[in-house]
Design a protein that fits this description.
Gyrase A, domain 2; 2 domains; five-stranded antiparallel beta sheet; alpha/beta; 25% strand
């Protein structure tokens, strides 16, 4: 049975460039959710066209309450809502034949990366995994590799597609926009972008034997450079996490599940410190 897993973020979704479109209550958010669901459906349609027997979709952005279940392809199922221990990787297990990442974005600081950041918008400066700079694509690919699943597709802007190919080699990618700067891009119309996503998904699954999981050797060491000494101090209190500098923390484990879970705790602490400190956050 060919089971396909789809993690869907929002910053790399077709047509979106404005942070307002990413958050409930923001200008254009409802339309952003429709476009996000459209990209997810394109992956689902491509997967079933290539013979998938089931597709599980995980809403991997922010509140994780963005994808429109009423508009989702009825052949798929959806994981939705906060409190997910594995966050962007919730539901991904060794039972899946392939993982697809849709709507992804470049890591923090990548020039011309549309809405570039790593995990948090302003609280995190950089993330390092086993000593190498790391974006969300690498974080998630490493989790997929840990459970033995290859990443076969990444969609988003040109910058994240380049990042994915550098990391994963001959992975299928679809660039739905070309960054001008962080908040501006040259866009493809949804009908064009989503057709390319459908085709790329089907191509990827039709050559599944070409892909191998992205496997890192344990122990896994996650280092974070925060933008604030206060955030680093707060996150450094988490058992097992070491504060290695005024704005730096580090955590090591042999179980990659703990890396994903830790980011959830980091987000709660960092978000509270930042939101409670006004313009100094």
């Amino acid at each position: 049975m060919t089971k396909v897993y789809v993690s869907v973020d929002m910053e790399g979704v077709t047509g979106l460039t404005d942070p307002e479109e990413m958050h409930a209550g923001g200008r254009g958010y409802e339309r952003g959710c429709e476009l996000m669901t459209g990209d997810a459906n394109a992956v689902i349609e491509g997967a079933f066209a290539a013979g998938a027997e089931s597709v599980l979709v995980n809403d991997a952005h922010g509140s994780t309450k963005n994808l429109r279940i009423d508009l989702l392809d009825p052949r798929a199922t959806l994981i939705r809502g906060p409190g997910k221990p594995m966050r962007m990787a919730q539901g991904l297990t060794s039972e899946f034949a392939a993982a697809c990442f849709a709507g992804y974005h470049a890591r923090a600081g990548v020039q011309h990366g549309v809405l570039n950041h790593t995990w948090m918008g302003k609280e995190i400066q950089n993330v390092y995994l086993n000593g190498e700079i790391c974006g969300e694509t690498r974080l998630m690919a490493a989790f997929a590799g840990f459970v033995g699943v290859p990443v076969v597709l990444v969609t988003g802007d040109e910058a994240v597609c380049e990042e994915a190919r550098e990391l994963l080699g001959d992975v299928e990618t679809v660039a739905v926009k070309k960054g001008v700067d962080k908040f501006a891009a040259e866009l493809l119309p949804p009908s064009v972008a989503q057709e390319r996503i459908r085709q790329a998904t089907a191509r990827a699954l039709n050559r599944l034997a070409d892909f191998r999981p992205y496997a890192l050797e344990p122990p896994f060491t996650l280092a974070v450079e925060w933008n604030s000494t206060a955030i680093a101090a707060g996150c450094g209190l988490i058992p097992g996490t070491r504060q290695t500098g005024p704005r730096h923390t580090e955590f090591s484990t042999d179980d990659y599940h703990e890396i994903m879970a830790l980011f959830g705790i980091f987000a709660m602490i960092a978000g509270q410190v930042a939101c409670g400190s006004g313009v100094y956050g």
